[in-house]
Amino acid sequence: MVFDTFTDKSAEIGDRLTTEMQRNDAEEITEVLNLLHPANDKGTIH
Questions:
Q1: Contact, 40 vs 29, CB < 8 A?
Q2: How many CB atoms lie under 10 A from the CB of residue 46?
Q3: d(Cα 34, Cα 28) in Å, to the nearest integer?
Q4: Helices within the chain (DSSP H only)
């Protein structure tokens, strides 16, 4: 599962929640989401 740190809930991509994912898929989505919305402090958002 990938969490959105702004909402403290499962991240959504379109209308789908990022739950019940394979670990590799979750890591890839996390990388993409962090590229789309980088943290202001060089940390990670997702």
A1: no
A2: 19
A3: 10
A4: 23-36
Q: Encode pLDDT of 14-38 as tens digits.
A: 788 778 888 888 888 888 887 877 6
Which two structure tokens, joined as six digits, stand for 35? 């590229």
The DSSP 8-state label assigned to residue 20 in this structure reads: S
pTM score: 0.57
The pLDDT value given to residue 46: 55
Fill in the amino acid letter for 17.
L
Q: How many CB atoms lie within 10 A of CB 36?
A: 9
Q: What is the CA radius of gyration of the chain?
A: 10
Structure tokens at 37: 């919305």
* Alpha-carbon gap, residue 35 to 46, rounded angstroms: 10
